[in-house]
Design goal:
The protein is of the alpha+beta class. The protein is built from 13 helices and eleven strands. The strands form four sheets. It has a five-stranded antiparallel beta sheet. Strands 1-5 form a two-stranded antiparallel ribbon. The two termini are about 50 Å apart.
């Protein structure tokens, strides 16, 4: 390991605002399993408005309906009471939706970026016709990501369209179903929101929050590397997202700067949950997924190590910490290197530090990137308490009150200049038969 002299003076300092940004003060939570009417959830039978009640009111509502039909007719006073109770239930049913709509309208009117959707009710039977679809801002083998305007309230989101024939051909149904299920389950300030899903005969669609500031990777490429405090800002937010993912019973398995986006205020959003899977703390996994430069030794050689657990996400956090401060990953020389070449370098554990690394961050990186699992730093509580994070108030980080080092310059509604331009795709014609059973629930 390189030693080097003392770190240079950092021009960015860790600061906290008194108020919060978007979502400030809202605790991270797992989404309710019983939320109905969200496209992509299991079908929910719609309850007629006059049957809606609260706190055991279904029987009362039923009784009211019976009474009003003249069957088992109660006294006039009781009938009047039941009718009033039913009317109150109807009012409650609509007040929640009205409150959400009011919040959206207030945000649009008062926020500089109120045109970016933070919640969206797609309703049942959603189709692409509900959106004005704009240009492609991301492209991969499975499909495209486009920015789009929701016609109902003119707010913007992104729509990820995935080709059903590709998923069928590569037997990738499990991955797209996992992503849908997991994003429906997670709700955190530093994780991208899924508003809903739908499908047509040839594609499945994920309707998601528009993270307007682009990839952290693009920002890193522009700057070459970040200072210690700038890196610490991003690492603290990424850490909190990973801790929440683990607490929710999942392992992310694909942490890299390309999968960290910056929102309009400069805060992190973890995206792309295709390789994420459910697991308990000690459950072992053997599937090799992810990008080799960010994989732990037990992932790179899982056949001989007996698999890996979710602590591999902390290894990836160590890789990213090193990369943000140096502009490169510690064990991979180029993108064409084999997993075995990286594995051999990981086992040797040799990498050097530049002058930006003070002794505290060196110690953190070394402990996160220890090949021997028994000696590796792997507890979230221990990571929080590491001296490098001494000036980090994690409760204020969680409420988005740490001041970002960079605030993206976002202009008029639909601004997407932080994303590359892509050529338009021709009309898609399926290359093979589609197995629609893979897309149940979309």
């Amino acid at each position: 390991m390189g030693s080097g002299s003392s770190a240079p003076v950092d021009t960015f300092t860790i600061q906290y605002s008194d108020g919060g940004g978007l979502g400030a003060g809202a605790p991270a939570k797992r989404k309710s399993k019983n939320k109905g009417n969200k496209v992509g959830d299991a079908p929910v039978e719609q309850t007629p408005v006059e049957e809606i009640g609260g706190g055991g009111s279904s029987a009362a509502a039923s009784g009211a309906a019976t009474a009003l039909a003249g069957k088992g007719k109660p006294s006039a006073a009781k009938a009047k009471m039941l009718k009033a109770k039913n009317a109150m239930a109807v009012q409650r049913a609509f007040s929640s939706a009205g409150e959400m709509r009011g919040q959206r309208e207030h945000r649009k009117a008062t926020s500089k970026h109120g045109w970016i959707a933070k919640d969206m009710s797609l309703g049942p039977n959603c189709t692409i016709k509900k959106f004005e679809v704009d240009r492609i801002i991301g492209m991969g083998l499975m499909g495209t990501v486009r920015i789009a305007k929701f016609r109902k309230d003119s707010t913007f989101c992104v729509i990820k369209a995935i080709k059903k024939d590709y998923v069928t051909r590569h037997n990738d149904g499990r991955h797209v179903q996992n992503e849908r299920r997991i994003l429906n389950d997670l709700d955190h300030p530093f994780i991208v929101k899924l508003f809903g899903t739908f499908q047509d005969p040839h594609r499945i669609f994920f309707v998601m929050e528009y993270v307007a500031g682009g990839e952290l990777f693009s920002r890193l490429c522009k700057k070459d590397s970040f200072s210690a405090n700038v890196s610490k800002f991003y690492i603290a937010e990424i850490f909190m997202a990973l801790e929440y993912i683990h607490d929710s019973g999942y392992c992310y398995r694909d942490l890299k700067p390309e999968n960290i986006m910056l929102d309009e205020e400069g805060h992190c959003k973890v995206v792309d949950f295709g390789f994420c899977r459910s697991c308990n703390a000690d459950e072992r996994m053997k599937t090799q997924v992810g990008t080799p430069a960010y994989l732990s030794p037990e992932q790179l050689d899982s056949k001989f190590t007996g698999g890996y657990t979710r602590i591999v996400d902390w290894w990836s956090l160590g890789i990213i910490t090193y990369e943000l401060m140096s502009g490169k990953t510690p064990f991979c020389k180029n993108n064409s290197e084999s997993s075995y070449a990286i594995y051999m370098r990981v086992q040797k554990g040799k990498f050097s530090f530049n002058k930006k690394f003070d002794n505290e961050v060196k110690d953190l990186v070394k402990k996160l990137l220890t090949a021997d699992v028994t000696k590796r730093l792997q507890s979230p509580a221990e990571i929080r308490q590491h001296p490098w994070f001494a000036d980090i108030q994690f409760d204020r980080v969680a409420s988005r009150r740490m001041v970002p080092p960079h605030v993206p310059s976002i202009g008029e509604p639909g601004d997407c200049h932080y994303f590359d331009q892509y050529p338009e795709e021709p009309e898609h014609t399926p290359k093979n038969e589609i197995d629609d059973s893979l897309f149940a629930g979309f």
